[in-house]
């Protein structure tokens, strides 16, 4: 739903209707964008869209865990991700505190069937704590508790990773993969040109999905932060590409 954040803010029902028309059976929530949560829940039921996962603002894991739980039950979804670590906490102290808070949330919520995870931008692969890349440091299990990684193929690529290889370390503990495609030859910050529709860029998406099918991935999140051709058309092209892989896989 981050991809259609503007559209969702302006017309929640129209947005969900369009996603259903494309063929989506589930969505990943990314905040209410000014909409009433109860009304959103009703619209999701109306259009028979499951909630695959929920992106939660970083600070809410620190000060609003009860509110997160309430939303999770409202939307019937117990897979919740820290959307990204806030800029002011992009330092060693912030990373350590983030791991501590997310593990505390997991310890409280895991017995209730929740999965607590972290979505990665590129700096979670560039920065290091205790000799471990931040994404790996935070998702390394501690005393049997696991923070679930939500790998993002685009940001992995921007960080210099090969997503086909980088995701292999997450076997069995990455229920959702974020799929965004990439085209080289532009500045890494030039998303207008280097961000492509899923299946039309240089990332080997077929191999990514092939790995996912063999390693307990439950949902593939088609994401398009920006679009040159209209966001719904971009999402449709990505969706259709993934469906086209079914016969090959």
Automatic annotation (TrEMBL):
GO terms for molecular function: isomerase activity. It comes from the Bacteria. The keyword Isomerase applies. SUPFAM superfamilies: Xylose isomerase-like. Coiled coil: none annotated. The keyword Isomerase applies. Residues 18-209 form the Xylose isomerase-like TIM barrel domain. Keywords: Isomerase. InterPro entries: IolE/XylAMocC-like, Xyl_isomerase-like_sf, Xyl_isomerase-like_TIM-brl. This is Sugar phosphate isomerase/epimerase family protein. It comes from Bacillus salipaludis. The lineage of its organism: Bacteria, Bacillati, Bacillota, Bacilli, Bacillales.
């Amino acid at each position: 739903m981050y991809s259609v954040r503007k559209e969702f803010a302006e017309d929640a029902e129209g947005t969900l209707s369009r996603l259903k028309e494309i063929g989506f059976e589930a969505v990943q929530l990314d905040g209410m964008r000014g909409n009433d949560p109860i009304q959103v829940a009703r619209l999701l039921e109306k259009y028979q869209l499951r909630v695959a996962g929920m992106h939660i603002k970083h600070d809410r894991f620190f000060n609003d865990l009860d509110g997160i739980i309430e939303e999770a039950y409202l939307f019937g979804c117990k897979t919740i991700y820290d959307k990204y670590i806030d800029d002011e906490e992009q330092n060693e102290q912030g990373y350590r505190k983030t791991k501590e808070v997310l593990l505390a949330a997991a310890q409280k919520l895991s017995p209730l069937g929740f999965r607590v995870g972290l979505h990665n931008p590129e700096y979670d692969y560039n920065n290091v704590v205790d000799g471990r890349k931040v994404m790996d440091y935070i998702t390394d299990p501690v005393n049997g508790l696991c923070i679930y990684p939500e790998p993002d193929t685009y940001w992995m690529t921007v960080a210099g990773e090969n997503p086909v290889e980088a995701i292999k370390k997450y076997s069995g503990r990455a229920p959702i993969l974020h799929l965004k495609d990439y085209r080289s030859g532009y500045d890494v910050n030039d998303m207008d040109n280097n961000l492509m529709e899923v299946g039309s860029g240089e990332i080997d998406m077929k191999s990514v999905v092939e790995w996912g099918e063999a390693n307990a991935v439950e949902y593939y999140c088609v994401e398009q932060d920006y679009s040159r051709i209209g966001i719904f058309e971009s999402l449709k092209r990505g969706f259709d590409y993934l469906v086209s892989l079914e016969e090959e896989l």
